[in-house]
From TrEMBL:
GO terms for molecular function: kinase activity. Keywords: Kinase, Transferase. SUPFAM superfamilies: Ribokinase-like. GO terms for cellular component: cytosol. PANTHER family: RIBOKINASE (PTHR10584:SF166), SUGAR KINASE (PTHR10584). Gene3D superfamilies: 3.40.1190.20. InterPro entries: PfkB_dom (IPR011611), Ribokinase-like (IPR029056). It comes from Bifidobacterium erythrocebi. Residues 19-326 form the Carbohydrate kinase PfkB domain. This is Sugar kinase. Pfam families: PfkB. It comes from the Bacteria.
């Protein structure tokens, strides 16, 4: 076989690989363990310090571990923190396909954790937040691609570029040959009414935890009467079913509401709510495995699995991730480990 044929075959194989693109933002978290937070003017020494990537990185890393092509479409700057972001993306096999911004560094957060596991955050926003209406103009998803939107992209000027992408995506998911997934945020009060409207009109697959779902319902004016679930015969399951049903009906779009070890509640337009059980697990840290869940779900959707099966596989991955951590951050398992638990 000629070299040109080999190169052509490899290029075709790469082009056909399932792909997850994130329009989110990546920064560095500097984890600092302290005995207690110092008072103003005092001095403290950290017991342990670890830089770790934050934002959409965990979602892309989880997707990459499932064997799909993971691509970051957000902005990366120019400086010491930007260099760190590029390094961790490369190590994880995540491609950067978004804009580069010269002369402005990427952002970072200082995350202080005391002996009682309480966290204090100090953030410096950088290049990732300085987008404009053209930030995502070059993103044209291929057939079968899953495009992920992170809640943090809704909260700064990069949201202008995101809004432009949503308008180009149209309001009918059936007219798209790719899939849009949005994980929400508790800070929806900081998102403009216009962007909320465009998000709802785009009808993505919404993925959120219970608190985020309740925040979204409140922002949309959806009143959920869960008084019946507060009786002896009611309970958590019925409350989750009601929340998923009422919010999903208002969104007119697929909805996934995560609930940790209990799994997730899923509703598709016009259908009933399905509770997809989680896998028994024992957490070894306090951080949520929600990013792992979302990333794995996106990867399996890109591979052609149904939404229900993608969520079930994501439940398995999250239950494994919560058992292991790197500096207090859940570590997404490999595809083989995830499928072994899924198939038990």
């Amino acid at each position: 076989m000629r070299l040109s044929s080999i190169i052509s075959d490899r290029a075709k194989s790469a082009a056909d690989k399932p792909t997850v693109i994130s329009l989110g933002q990546v920064w560095m978290d500097i984890m600092l363990d302290v005995d207690e937070m110092p008072q103003t003017g005092d001095f403290a020494v950290t017991r342990n310090t670890k830089p770790t990537p934050g934002g959409s990185y965990r979602i892309l890393d989880a997707a990459s571990r499932m064997g799909v092509r993971a691509q970051h479409a957000g902005i990366i700057g120019d400086g010491i923190w930007a260099m760190a972001v590029r390094t961790v993306l490369k190590r994880a096999g995540i491609e950067h396909i978004g804009p580069d911004l010269d002369d402005v560094d990427s952002g970072f957060r200082l995350v202080f954790k005391d002996e009682e596991e309480r966290k204090t955050y100090i953030a410096h926003y950088g290049a990732e937040t300085l987008g404009d209406e053209h930030t995502f103009d070059a993103i044209k998803p291929a057939s079968g691609t899953v495009v992920h939107i992170s809640g943090n992209t809704l909260l700064n000027q990069t949201a202008v570029g995101l809004d432009g992408f949503l308008r180009r995506a149209g309001t009918d998911p059936k007219q798209r040959d790719w899939t849009l997934v949005l994980n929400s945020t508790n800070a929806l009060n900081q998102v403009s009414d216009k962007l909320i409207e465009d998000l709802v009109l785009a009808r993505p697959i919404w993925s959120c935890n219970r608190q985020e779902a309740e925040t979204l319902a409140d922002r949309m004016g959806v009143h959920i009467d869960d008084s019946a679930t507060m009786t002896v015969g009611g309970g958590f399951d019925e409350s989750m079913r009601l929340l998923c049903d009422e919010l999903g009906n208002a969104l007119r779009a697929p909805l996934v509401v995560r609930a940790g070890s209990r799994g997730a509640w899923v509703r598709k337009p016009g259908g009933d709510v399905e509770h997809i059980e989680g896998f028994p697990t024992k957490a070894v840290h306090t951080r949520s495995a929600g990013s792992c869940h979302t990333g794995v779900m996106c990867a399996m959707l890109a591979k052609g699995w149904s939404l229900a099966d993608s969520v079930r596989i994501a439940n398995a991955a999250a239950s494994l991730a919560i058992q292991h951590n790197d500096g207090g951050v859940p570590v997404c398992p490999s595809y083989e480990e995830t499928m072994a638990l899924f198939e038990e």
